[in-house]
Amino acid sequence: MQFPTLSFGLFFLLVYAIAWALNGSNEWRKIALLMASWFFYGAWDGRFVLLLFLSASGNWLIARAIAAASSPGRERGLVALGVVLNLSVLATFKYAGFFLEQLDALLLALGFGRDVPLMQVFLPVGVSFFTFQAISYLVDVQKRRIAPAGWLDLALLMSFFPHLVAGPIVRGSDLLPQFRTAPRLERGAVAAALLLILWGMFKKVVVASELATALVDPAFRDPLHRSSLDLLFGAYGYAVQIYCDFSAYSDMAIGLAMLLGYRFPRNFDQPYRAASLQDFWRRWHISLSSWLRDYLYIPLGGSRKGRLRTYLNLFLTMLLGGLWHGANWTFLLWGALHGGWLAIERGLVRAAAGRIVLPRAIGILVTFHIVVLGWIFFRAPTLTDALAYLHGLAAGDARNTLVTPLSLALVTIGLAMHALPPRGLQRLAERLRYWPAPLVGALVAIGLLLIGAMQPEGVAPFIYYQF
Amino acid sequence: MTVGAEQGEIAEIGSPVALPPAPIDRRRPWRWTTTSLAVATLLLALGDGPAMTGWANDLPPGPVAAALREPLAAWADGTARWHLDAPGTWLRQQWLQARKARFGSEAPGEAGAADAP
C-alpha cells in the first residue's frame, strides 16, 4: 500500500475517522493506531508484522532493564546488548547475503569455491529505519534523555505507519512525549499538513515518476550506448528524481502524521542550495544525518580528538551511512566519496582560516556536482555499471538521443524548487488557515485532480522503500 | 499540542507543520479539518470517476472487488454524462502531448539507444 494510491487514501480516511472518534481515550486511540500501522505493514507481508512486534517487545524489555540497572557498567552492557541485537536483525536481513556472496567469491578465487550457501532473504520494508529508531531509543534511555516508555508507546513509536517504511527516523524524544496525552489539532498545522501532502504528491507523481521512466532509467540501463549529453542529463535527472521522490515521502509522512495530531521533525531543507557538503548534510535526510552525528560520529570522538581523528571519524561515519543504505559496493563508494569530501572540505576550511572565502554560487555549484557524482554510484546497480556511466560521461559525445522538452522542464523545475523562498510553504499555510474549510477542500481536490491528470500509468514505489 | 518534544530534534531543526500561533488555530480545528477532507473527497469522487473504476479493476479478484466494480463503473458513467471528468481528461491529453514533444527532428527514447555509438 503506497501513499499516492486510492487504496491508501481510503485507508487513511478510515484511520482518521477512527482515531479522532477515539480521542476521548488516549490509550484506545493509540491501540487503534497501532493496529492500523500493523495492517498497513502487513499489506506487504504479514511476517514482517511479527518481526516488528518482536523488535518492539525486545527493545521494551531491554530499556526497562537499563532503567532498573544498579550500576552504570551494567547499563552500558545492556545498551551494548540491545545495539548488537538490533544490528543483528539488520545484518541478517540486509547484509548476510552480501557478505556470503563476497566470501563465496573470495573462496572461489582461492580455489575453495562452491561451499558457501547463498541466502535469498526477503528484506522487510523499512527495517533500517525502525532498527535505527530502536537503537537511538535505548541510548537515549541510558543517557537519561528520555524515560523508558510503556510497551504500547514504544510499539507505536516504531510502527507508526506514516514514518514506518521510509522515515523520517523520528526519535523517541520527539514522539513519545506526544503520545502521553490525546492530541489536538490546530488550523495552521493542518493547513501546512495539507499543503505538504499536495506538494509531496506533485513531486513524487509528476516530477519523480516521469523523470524516472523518461530519462533516468533509460540512461542508467545502458550507459555504454548513450551519448555523454544523455548521461549528463540522466545524472542531473536522477539528482532531481531522488530528491523529489524521497522528500515527497517525508512531506507526506509529516502531513499525514499531523492530520492524526502528531508532529514530525523536518527531514529536507532545499538540499541543492547547500554551499558545502557539510551544509548539504544539514539539509538532506536530516533525520539520518543527525542520527549518524549523535549516535556514531560523536561516540567515535567527533572533533574532540585532534585533526586527523576528526577526518577519520567523518570518513567512517559516512562510510557506515553508505552501508546503511544497502549491501552493495556502490553504496560504500557513495559513502566513501561523501566522507572523503567532507574531510577534505574540513581541511580546506581550516587551511584557509577565513583568509579565502569562496563565492556562495561557486560553493553551491561545486557541492551540487560532488553530490551528483555520488548519485551515479548510488543509482548504478553495480560498480561496473557506475564506472561505465562515468566512462560514457567523459566520452564527450554531445548528441541528444534521450532528453525531451518535458524531461528538461522537469529537471529545471526540480532544481528551481531550491530557489524558492525558504519556509515558503509555511508562509502559505499561515494564510490558508484563515480560509473557509469548503474552499480549502476544493483547493486540495483541484490540486489532486491536476496531479492525477499528469500521473503516469502505475506509480513506481518510493526509492527509499528498499532501504 | 506537543508535550516535551522540545527535548528532541524538533527543537533543533523545527517541523514544517510548526507555525507561529494565531487565535484562529483553535477555532473549531477538528470541524475545519474534517470539512476540508470531506469536501476534497466528494469533489475527487465527482471529478475523477475513471480513477475509481481503474482502482476497482486493479483490486485482487475477490468478493470485495466484485461488489465494488459495478457500482463504481455506474458512478463513473454518471459523472462522465455530466462531463465532470472533462477538465481532467483535457489536462491529461495536454500532458500526453507534452510527453510526445521532441527537440527538432530527433526521436529520443529507447529507440535512440540503437543509433547511439
Structural description of this entry:
The complex is a heterodimer of chains A (467) and B (117). Chain A has 467 residues and is mainly alpha-helical. Chain A is built from 19 helices and no strands. Chain A has helices at residues 6-21, 26-42, 46-68, 72-109, 127-142, 151-159, 161-164, 172-179, 187-221, 228-259, 277-281, 286-297, 307-325, 329-352, 360-379, 383-393, 405-416, 424-432, 437-453. In chain A, helix 4 (72-109) packs antiparallel against helix 5 (127-142) and helix 9 (187-221) packs antiparallel against helix 10 (228-259). With 117 residues, chain B is mostly helical. Chain B has a domain at 50-101. In chain B, 62% of the residues lie in helices and 0% in strands. The model of chain B is unreliable at 1-6 and 111-117 (pLDDT under 50). At the A-B interface, helix 1, helix 8, helix 9, helix 10 and helix 12 of A face helix 1, helix 2, helix 3, helix 5 and helix 6 of B.
Poorly predicted sequence stretches spanning 5 or more consecutive residues of chain B = 1-6, 111-117
Compressed to H and E, one letter per element, the order of chain A equals HHHHHHHHHHHHHHHHHHH
Overall mean confidence score, pLDDT of chain A: 92
Q: How many discrete structural domains of chain A?
A: 2
Q: Give me the oligomer status.
A: heterodimer
Low-confidence stretches of chain A: none
Largest sheet of chain B: none
* Number of DSSP E strands of chain A: 0
Largest interface chains and counts: A-B, 83 and 66 residues
- Strands of chain B, total number: 0
Ends apart, CA distance between termini of chain A: 16 Å
Q: What structural category characterises the helix and strand content of chain B?
A: mainly alpha
Query: How would you describe the shape of chain B?
Result: extended
Which percent range fits the helix content of chain B? 55-70%
Q: How are helices and strands ordered from N to C of chain B? A: HHHHHH
Radius of gyration over C-alpha positions of chain A, nearest whole angstrom: 23 Å
Dominant shape of chain A: globular
Separate helix tally of chain B: 6
Structural class, from helix and strand content of chain A? mainly alpha
Beta-strand percentage range of chain B: under 5%
Indicate the proportion of strand residues of chain A.
Answer: under 5%
